[in-house]
Amino acid sequence: MTTVDEVLRYLDGLDYPATRDEIVQEAEREGAPNEVLKALRGMPPVDYRNKDEVVRSAKTDIAQETPAEKAAKARDKKHQRVAEYLRDTT
User: Fold this and answer.
1) The whole model's pTM is what?
2) Where is the composition biased (Basic and acidic residues) (predicted)?
3) Burial status of residue 71 (CB atoms within 10 A of its CB: 0-12, 13-18, 19 or more)
4) What pLDDT score does 18 carry?
């Protein structure tokens, strides 16, 4: 599976709003590998207003937390007793 950074690398020249098909065509023009195209084709066929919406919809890997981020969350009382995947990262 591809990452968010790999997806965004091929969408720099895209003007928004854009449809899923326009996003896939832009990635193809930029020479995106099959993994990136597969992630973009898996998005719902709607209009996307910006890169954030594309990132939320594209089928990408979730970035791993660094040990420092995990330690900071462990010290933060509001994150205790909440499953790691449900924790707010901000």
Assistant:
1) 0.66
2) 81-90
3) exposed
4) 95
